[in-house]
Write a structure and sequence with these properties.
Blueprint lengths: L1 E9 L9 E9 L5 E8 L10 H6 L4 H4 L7 H14 L3 E5 L2 H15 L13 E4 H11 L7 E2 L5 E2 L2 H7 L10 H18 L1 H9 L3 H10 L3 E4 L8 E9 L6 E6 L4 H5 L3 H8 L6 E5 L6 E3 L13 H12 L2 H13 L22 H12 L2 H8 L5 H15 L5 H16 L12 H10 L6 H8 L3
Length: about 450
């Protein structure tokens, strides 16, 4: 299977309300030899006020971000979707991608009516190179050396990590350079720690993760933030009733017998207390997992493989205990109300119907004059709102003047953060200007003046 390494640069850190400005990707063969390369940029969407810090970090001027010679966001996203679909099936890899780049990519697809889960459906798989680098730096220090921070401490940011391992990082926070640095680091791990590379790829598939945690009575889970332990020894006890991608796993190094003696209420309370006996394992998050026989004895600490297998067997032979643990873990989950903002409804309001997905496909192929009528036929209210907004951005003349004026004012109110948008969760003109003051000594007068002129 091929690999696709990708990276995005954005207007800020808010994965629901900021947007991609630059996207770059490299496709390789199974040996990590480059076969194709793609890069694109776009201009700001009308409702997005960029973070001054983000633009300063990526050395992007406001003039660049608003340059009308660049594609619109919708135009760029359509091109990205077409290229990545043509490169499928592949394993999609990025640096800190699962929590950042992929969320921005999914949000872009969602807002532009493209399939949201392109990178992990239709035989595609995904994994996060940051997790691979943390594991390599921890378990194979002769292969990957951590980067060095300003204070001399070990860091796993892409730039310092690449530099520490002899890879020229190029221009910082440029998508194309970041892709090359990520690919270079993966080549080091593939050649220097092939068994880690194999495990990393194996669990890029959700199906492989599910099969593994179901079939292994006990297994090890690498977690960089598990100090003083990086390997956690677990057995699966159940699945979240709210999210089938979350599997509840019991830490076998804890006092399992003490948990067994607790009643339901006591167990629920204990689940929320550190050290937490239950770990939430996201089977679609490409975790690094190992069978116990593949773990060096030094990583077991004060326990042993035999003790762990014995505890796991006792737990998994007690379905009532496993059910109580699952119920307690589910009770401890936070439940968030559905947001009023369509951007934040990407996951919480369910999947789109087959008929709506078919109309999304038609939307991209129809003339703009036909898309307005098509949008009104969507069953899902999210698609209606997003579709109408796309038409407003791309072909506003198709709306009647009174509707167009109302949409103009709505966008203006969003940017100002007033009217019905008081204290919004996105960057507004006033909040951007406040942020600008915080970096005043770092920016040029031209950069400052361009922001003070925005409305």
């Amino acid at each position: 299977m091929a690999f696709v390494f990708y990276d995005v640069e954005t207007t800020g850190l808010n994965k629901r309300f900021d947007q991609i400005l630059q996207f770059a990707a490299v496709r390789t063969d199974v040996d990590l030899v480059e076969t194709e390369r793609f890069e694109t940029r776009c201009r700001l969407m009308p409702q997005v006020v960029p973070s001054p810090k983000a633009l300063h970090l990526t050395e992007t001027s406001l003039a660049d971000a608003t340059d009308t010679s660049r594609p619109t966001h919708y135009g760029m996203v359509c091109t990205i979707a077409r290229v990545l679909s043509s490169w499928s099936p592949s394993v999609f890899l990025g640096f800190n991608s699962i929590s950042f780049d992929e969320e921005f990519l999914r949000q872009a697809f969602y807002q532009c009516l493209h399939p949201v889960f392109l990178t992990n459906t239709n035989r595609n798989a995904r994994a996060d190179v940051l997790n691979l680098m943390r594991a390599a730096g921890t378990l194979h220090p002769s292969v990957i050396r951590p980067g060095v921070g300003a204070d001399g401490a070990d860091v796993y940011r892409l730039g310092p990590l690449a530099a520490a391992n002899g890879i020229a990082p190029g221009k910082a926070h440029d998508a194309a350079h970041d892709v090359d640095a990520t690919l270079g680091l993966c080549r080091l791990v593939r050649s220097g720690a092939p068994e880690l590379w194999s495990a990393f790829l194996r669990f890029s598939s959700k199906t492989s993760v599910v099969d593994f945690v179901r079939d292994e009575d006990a297994f090890a889970y690498f977690d960089f933030y598990g100090s003083p332990r990086v390997m956690h020894f677990l057995t699966r006890v159940g699945i979240s009733p709210r999210d089938g991608n979350v599997h509840y796993c019991l830490d076998l190094t804890g006092d399992v017998d003490a948990l067994r003696r607790l009643d339901t209420l006591e167990l629920t309370e204990r689940i929320a207390v550190e050290p937490r006996p239950i770990r939430r394992l996201k089977v679609n998050g490409s975790p690094l997992l190992y069978p116990l026989w593949d773990i060096e004895r030094s990583l077991f600490g004060e326990t042993s493989e035999e003790d762990l297998m014995r505890s796991a067997s006792l737990v998994r032979s007690d379905p009532d205990f496993m059910e109580r643990l699952t119920q307690a873990a589910a009770s401890a989950e936070k439940v968030y109300p559905l947001s009023e903002h369509v951007e934040q409804q990407i996951y919480g309001a369910g999947f789109f119907s087959d008929s709506d997905r078919e109309m999304c496909r038609q939307f991209h192929s129809r003339p703009w004059e036909e898309r307005l009528g098509l949008v009104e036929r969507f069953d899902d209210q999210r698609l209606r709102r997003l579709g109408r907004r796309l038409i407003y951005f791309e072909a506003a003349h198709l709306f009647e003047e009174i509707t167009r004026r109302a949409m103009d004012e709505d966008i203006a109110a969003r940017r100002r953060g007033d009217g019905r948008y008081l204290s919004p969760p996105w960057t507004t003109v006033p909040s951007a200007l406040l942020e600008l003051e915080s970096i005043d000594t770092q920016i040029s007068s031209e950069f400052r003046q361009s922001f003070t002129a925005i409305k």
